[in-house]
Write a structure and sequence with these properties.
Blueprint: H1 2-91, H2 113-157
Helix pairs in contact: 1-2
């Protein structure tokens, strides 16, 4: 019976040692897990702050590009307004040469001068306004494209 008590005592000692080893391993795993969680959180926080900084830089670059684009469009608008005024000024002038000074009836040739002037002015106005609209749309598209290219180059250059 003494062997039975001795065996039970040894078994209890072995089980106690096993529990102690497993508890130690569990504590080590908990410590490693806590360190891993802290490391991942720190990396996530660093990435988040870097992303916020990059977003802010992109926002500022976009605002700068938008301002440049708006200025370019204002410049184009001024250019086309001047062009329209020039066309209006020239539309009041006759597109036909003056009649010779010795003509008996300078207003009448083989056609009605005023009617022909009006017809030519209307036709030229339609042609010029259509061309100006096409040119303006093209110039605005070029301005938008140039602004986008500049912004993209700056964004790529910041990486």
């Amino acid at each position: 019976m003494i062997y039975l008590y001795a065996g039970a005592g040894i078994l209890i000692l072995l089980l106690g040692a096993a529990v102690k080893v497993q508890s130690s391993r569990l504590d080590t795993c908990k410590t490693e897990h806590a360190a891993f969680v802290a490391q991942v959180k720190a990396a996530g926080d660093a990435q988040e702050s870097a992303t916020k900084l990059k977003d802010e830089q992109n926002k500022l670059a976009k605002e700068k590009s938008d301002a440049q684009n708006a200025k370019a469009k204002r410049d184009l608008a001024g250019l086309y307004d001047s062009y329209s005024k020039l066309l209006d000024t020239n539309s009041r002038l006759s597109q036909l040469p003056e009649a010779p000074s010795g003509s008996a009836s300078p207003a009448d040739i083989t056609f009605d001068r005023a009617s022909l002037d009006r017809g030519l002015a209307v036709a030229d106005g339609i042609l010029q306004s259509g061309a100006a609209k096409i040119l303006r749309r093209g110039d605005e598209a070029i301005t938008d494209l140039d602004t986008g290219k500049t912004w993209a180059q700056q964004a790529v250059g910041q990486r």
